[in-house]
Amino acid sequence: MQTVILDFNTRVEEVNKYFNFLKELTAENTKLTVLEENGDQTIKPIDPELVITLKANGFLLLYNLVESTMRNAIEAIFEELKSRRVSFDSVRIEVKKIVLYNFKNRSPDDVHSRITDISTDIIKAGFNRRKLFSGNVNRDKIAKTAREYGFSCHTDYTKTKHGENLDAVMEKRNDLAHGNKSFASVGRTVTIGDIVQIKDEVVEYLRQILINIENYLDNQEYLHSDNR
Predict the structure, then answer these.
(1) What is the pLDDT of residues 133-175, one digit of tens each?
(2) C-alpha to C-alpha distances, 71 to 6, 134, 140, 142, nearest whole angstrom
(3) Distance CA 148, CA 135 (A)
(4) Is 34 left (phi over 0), alpha (psi -120 to 50) or beta?
(5) Is 44 strand, coil or helix?
């Protein structure tokens, strides 16, 4: 989980830099210096339409943070089980169901060479990182994932709104990614103040979910209660 948290913090720093730049553009504190053919420098204001497009692009950055964070966190759970050589018989029923589902959806040709002790190797052998999420991570998806694995999705509502803004982030990301809406039309629906608030709440929500998963691993809550 330390690697996951480090990656999360790095991505958050990238997102924060982008949104700080957006705020500067909106406040008209940033202008372009254009070098003309004669060598003169001309200062020009930023095109307001470009700012609108850049606001919409912020949703792509946020969704990238959401999906990568959750994918890395779930992978960390499987890495923990693998490194501790946790057996299938010892894990909680929710995790057993996930393991069986994963294994059922893998070809025997893909997994047989990785199994020497089926009681422990079956957990990691069926795991496929690429199958975890695909443009569908919102609040309900994270809550469902938490129930499936047995970690808490509770967060401080005053700081996170329990992730309710993830729905808008996913929706707008999908509209942009699939060409359903233009960047201009999406960017016009939100102010810079609104999108910065969304960013802050989404980042804090993810941070607290990662803490929950870290506690889940530290306390070995993936094990059946008889084995803790």
Answers:
(1) 887 999 999 999 999 999 999 999 999 999 999 999 999 999 9
(2) 14, 10, 15, 11
(3) 19
(4) beta
(5) strand
**Structural domain for 138, as ranges:** 2-227
Are 130 and 167 within 8 A, CB to CB? no
Number of domains in the chain: 1
What whole-number distance in Å separates Cα of residue 109 and Cα of residue 98? 20
Percent helix / strand / coil, the chain, rounded to 5: 70, 5, 25
SS3 (DSSP) at 154? coil
The 10s digit of each residue's pLDDT in 174-193 is: 999 999 999 999 999 999 99
Which uninterrupted H or E stretch holds 34? strand 32-35
